[in-house]
Amino acid sequence: MFSKISRYRNVPVVTAPDAGGRELAAVDIRLLPDVTGDFRHTVDGGDRLDQLGYKYYSQPLQWWNIADANPAFLWPLDLLDKGVIVTTRFPVTVAGVPPWSAVFQSLLGRLGVEDVQAAEDIQLVPKQVDAGGGQKVTIMDQQFSRAVLVTYNRMNVGADALAALIAAAGFSVASFTEIGQLGQDIVIPPRPGA
Question: Domain count of the chain?
C-alpha cells in the first residue's frame, strides 16, 4: 500500500466506522519517532522541503525526516517560515500611559488573532552631558522601547490591518517586522538507516 520510503509503511492499519456505520480500513496515528541530529541547516527564503530532502538524503520525498526532527513546528511549512500562522513585531510609541488594555481588547477581538503580547525593553545607551565648565562626560542613559507582538493567521487578517487596530487604540506604530524562521537553524537528522 505504501512505498518503501513512506513514513506510513510501518504504521498499522486499523478499522474505523464511517458515518453510515460501515467499517473501513484506515491508517492508525503515526507517533513521532525519537530523532536525533547534530547537523543544522540555516533557513533561507528560497528553501523548499523537497529540495532539502534531496540535498540531505538524495530523495525529495524524504523531507518528512526533517519535519520529524523539528517537532516544535506544528506544520512542515512552518520550518521554512511559509506557514499561515505568523508572529509580527509592531514597534510602538505613546505619550503618557500605554493603553495596553485597549490594544489587547481590540486585537484579541479580531478574527485570526491567536495571541497578543506587550514587550517593554530598557536599554542603557551612552549619552554626552555637560558637567559644567565646558566639560562633557559620558553617562549611561535609559532608553525605553515598546512593541506589540501579535501571533495571527495571515489567511484571516494582514499586518496592515493589525497596525491600524494598534494605532486606533492610541499608539503610534513604526515599521513592523515578521518574526520568523529565516536565518534560524533547523535540525537535519542522519540519513534513515545510516
Answer: 2
Q: Do 37 and 27 meet the contact criterion of CB atoms below 8 Å apart?
A: no
**Sign of the CA dihedral with 148 first, then 75, 67, and 32 last:** positive
Residue 13 belongs to domain spanning: 1-31
**CA nearest 67: which of 194, 187, 190?**
187
In contact, 191 and 55? CB cutoff 8 Å? no
Count of CB atoms situated within 10 Å of the CB of 85: 16
- Look at residues 69, 56, 67, 64 and name the one whose alpha carbon lies nearest to residue 2: 64
Residue whose entry in the numeric block shows the C-alpha cell 522601547? 145
CATH assignment at residue 91: 3.30.70
pTM of the model as a whole: 0.65
**Residue type at 155 in one-letter notation:** M
CB 145 within 8 A of CB 92: no
Residues 92 and 172 placed together within one structural domain of the fold: yes
- Locate 173 and state its grid cell: 506604530
Is residue 193 scored above 80 in pLDDT?
A: no
For residue 183, name the pLDDT band (cuts at 50, 70, 90).
Answer: confident
Do 89 and 26 reside in the same domain of the chain?
no
